[in-house]
């Protein structure tokens, strides 16, 4: 499963890219607003750090506006993926970009039928929002399982990008469900490496090694 980081914070992106764990980046208008920076500057900077796919979301909600903005975003860097909302206009724009060879990420997906529509118009990625479904007492992971089954039934090439990830458990669950990618907040990526037995085991090894008085170098 590929790991994307869900942030517009440059320092977090740079640090995570250096770990070798990062395959791409997703942003959205809320994350851009939080960064307090100019949208296009942020996207260009992210693309200069991470060579993998970087999702940049359109602000327009009508077809013509999405097409105009998507073309601007796609020209910012070769690895930009145009992110579009799961509406009829967004799907129509996805079809147009797909024909033009521009990569797309269809966002705000909350049902298997929505994911089916995105695959039919040739979306590169579909983003089902796991955490926001869990928030309303629905089952986000079950949505990933259902989309996996539908896409496999028809051999759709659209990649399932599990989004709105909140916890390390979400990562295990979406990996078991067969998501192709997870886009994860930086803090959750770091938490994946934590285990109390790793911590206590390493402390003991360090202590015992010191007691030998030896040096490897
Ligand atoms: C996905 O592309 C979105 O940017 C993101 O995962 C939304 O997460 P949230 O529900 O925590 O805002």
UniProtKB/TrEMBL annotation:
Pathway: Carbohydrate degradation; pentose phosphate pathway; D-glyceraldehyde 3-phosphate and beta-D-fructose 6-phosphate from D-ribose 5-phosphate and D-xylulose 5-phosphate (non-oxidative stage): step 2/3
GO molecular function: aldehyde-lyase activity; transaldolase activity
GO cellular component terms listed in the entry, alphabetical order: cytoplasm
EC numbers for this chain: 2.2.1.2
Intracellular or extracellular location(s): Cytoplasm
GO terms of biological process kind: carbohydrate metabolic process; ketone catabolic process; pentose-phosphate shunt
Organism domain of life: Bacteria
Name of this chain's protein: Probable transaldolase
SUPFAM superfamilies reported for this sequence: Aldolase (SSF51569)
Pfam families given in the database record: TAL_FSA (PF00923)
Entry annotation: catalytic residues: 83 (schiff-base intermediate with substrate)
PANTHER family reported in the protein's UniProt record: FRUCTOSE-6-PHOSPHATE ALDOLASE 1-RELATED (PTHR10683:SF40), TRANSALDOLASE (PTHR10683)
Summary of the function given for this chain in its UniProt record: Transaldolase is important for the balance of metabolites in the pentose-phosphate pathway.
Catalytically driven reaction(s): D-sedoheptulose 7-phosphate + D-glyceraldehyde 3-phosphate = D-erythrose 4-phosphate + beta-D-fructose 6-phosphate
Organism listed in the record: Devosia insulae DS-56
Family classification: Belongs to the transaldolase family. Type 3B subfamily.
Keywords: Cytoplasm, Pentose shunt, Schiff base, Transferase
Gene name of this polypeptide: tal
Enzyme class name: transferase
InterPro entries for this protein: Aldolase_TIM, TAL/FSA, Transaldolase_3B, Transaldolase_3B/F6P_aldolase, Transaldolase_AS, TSA/FSA_arc/bac
Chief location category: cytoplasm
């Amino acid at each position: 499963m590929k790991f994307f980081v869900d942030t517009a914070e440059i320092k977090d992106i740079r640090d995570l890219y250096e770990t070798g764990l990062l395959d791409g980046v997703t942003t959205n208008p809320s994350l851009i607003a939080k960064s307090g920076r100019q949208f296009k500057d942020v996207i260009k900077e992210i693309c200069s750090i991470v060579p993998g796919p970087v999702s940049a979301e359109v602000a327009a909600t009508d077809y013509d506006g999405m097409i105009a903005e998507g073309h601007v975003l796609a020209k910012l860097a070769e690895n930009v993926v145009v992110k579009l909302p799961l509406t009829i206009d967004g799907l129509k724009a996805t079809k147009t970009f797909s024909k033009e060879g521009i990569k797309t990420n269809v966002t705000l997906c909350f049902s298997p039928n929505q994911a089916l529509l995105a695959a039919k118009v040739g979306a590169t990625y579909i983003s089902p929002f796991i955490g926001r479904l869990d928030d309303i007492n629905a089952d986000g992971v079950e949505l990933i399982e259902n989309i996996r089954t539908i896409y496999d039934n028809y051999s759709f090439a659209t990649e399932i990008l599990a989004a709105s990830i909140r916890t390390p458990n979400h990562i295990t669950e979406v990996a078991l469900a067969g998501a192709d990618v997870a886009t994860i907040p930086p803090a959750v990526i770091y938490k994946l490496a934590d285990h109390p037995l790793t911590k206590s085991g390493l402390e003991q090894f360090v202590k015992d090694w010191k007691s030998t008085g030896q040096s490897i170098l």
